[in-house]
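Support case: fructose -6-phosphate complex. Customer-provided input:
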Amino acid sequence: MCGIVGYIGFREAYPILIKGLRRLEYRGYDSAGIALIDNNEELSVYKAKGRVSDLEESVKDKDINGTIGIAHTRWATHGEPSNANAHPHYSQSETIALIHNGIIENHAVLKTQLEEKGYKFQSSTDTEVLVQFIEYIKSLNNCDLFSAVQIALKQVVGAYAIAIIEKGNPDQIIAARKSSPLVIGIGEGEFFLGSDASPIIEYTNRVIYLNDEEIALIKRNEEPKIFTISNVEITHEIKELEMNLSELERGGFPHYMLKEIFEQPETLKNCMSGRINVEGTHITLSGIIDFKEKFINARRIIIIACGTSWHAGLIGEYLFEEFCRVPVEVEYASEFRYRNPVIYKDDVVIAISQSGETADSLAAIESARKAGAFVYGVCNVIGSSIPRNTDSGSYTHCGHEIGVASTKAFTAQVTVLTMMALAIAKEKGTVNNERYLSIIKELQNIPAKIKTILSHNDKIKELSLIFTYAQNFIYLGRGYSYPIALEGALKLKEISYIHAEGYPSAEMKHGPIALIDNEMPVVAIATNNTIYEKVVSNVQEIKARKGRIIAIINEGDEGIKELADHYIEVPSTLECLDPLLSCIPLQLLAYHIAVNKNRDVDMPRNLAKSVTVE
Ligand code: F6R
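Agent response - structure generated as follows:
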């Protein structure tokens, strides 16, 4: 989703801004732009539809000097991707330039008012309405830009992270946020802005996270000042970032997605480290310790999430119900927030999110908190909005995930949920010690077993060639494998653009089996579990209709090999941990099919890494 970068300091701004935009490319975008104030205090805006490289091409013979500037990657919401709709947007007099991430919901009303006053618009964006409105307020009140922004934002309905610069004022950037992330980097005599820390980390690890309805005045050579939009000054803690630069590079892999798939043995070790004791006899999650009564006495657990994180939530449902004997509901955050759900004060709500910035998840959290429920976050990005807006939580600690298709964050989420379920079950006395110990032991074997699956990468790559030109795919699983069928299908569709659906295997005969013919590839997760025989019967039903079966099986399972047209072996494990293994070949299969189709694997069309609008 849209990315924001800003710089004010002693260096040339342009190279820093361009590099920053590149670091934010992973978020997904369709156009890019930059605004600079040069040494004569003139303000210039350059923008281009397409990639950051198109923007660079378009400014090749332009004067791009100056030590202050703002830059943006746009992911279209209002108005198609085009040069005119790209940010920054000028105000009418071309003295103010603004970049924006979010949606101004009352833009139509504001635009009508401004048009009646003679304002003309160059784009179809809500963002241009905002910058024109700020200019209008400034002239109406005869005030400075900072006060105009404050007054304007009070009248704005919607979500925003914005950065603004002004002609003739080369010493300040104004930035504000509501429901869209914004980070200020504090260097020595220089300041940075970013939608997240990735454009900043190269220069400083000291940051301030702006909170909702806060506005920052970032002046050259002065400490940034932060106010609420009602003009109350706020003192902010400067936080130290834990991220490092090498996490942002591809490390020899052709794509971030492949790098991140291969990182999983390591990321899962990091996720468990310090939580499972060295003897392997106990799980401690600090986020649970202080609130263990909430979990023990929970009437119900409600899991809210979107996309891949929602699939992790479904696995969470199986885990919490099996081990903690508590009813669990898994909700799409986007539905939960508008559904007027019944929420009890003794409900525990678990919000799962890689980015920690998903707008729908944040809104769902707000509804849960308003209803008095205890809210626990399971997030990856440290310091992001969800960890800051929940009562407690656990980080997944899998490092920066750049590929738009979530892989290592998913397995880390499932690992955290497994540890949570076990830790709570132990407190509640709903798991016996022998079982508890055996699961902890096997959890620690998972990284090595993932390594074994990764060693089959070449075989999976070969298999992918057979199915690259399929139009449709079906993924089947039962029990703990059902969410993996959904996740496998999502991975394939989002990066290869092949239509794919996941189903619980036994549902096939209630409709979808009509789709099966000798052209339909069916990925069947048929690892050995308590309902293995039933899964085999379901696979036989597909076989009888000549579906082309790709089975995910346990090493040495000869029976199912005979039924399947192709198979990928994974090591056997405990049923409750099987999702951590069976998802890996599906990630690789989707990856290779997408590469064969020449897709932009790390930045698939229309998608954004961090979905900060609803
Ligand atoms: C799919 C994917 C998305 C995200 C979803 C939620 O690979 O990455 O479906 O899972 O947009 O994002 P987070 O987890 O950041 O809340």
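Residues 209 and 537 are 54 Å apart (CA to CA).

Case will auto-close in a few days if no follow-up is received.
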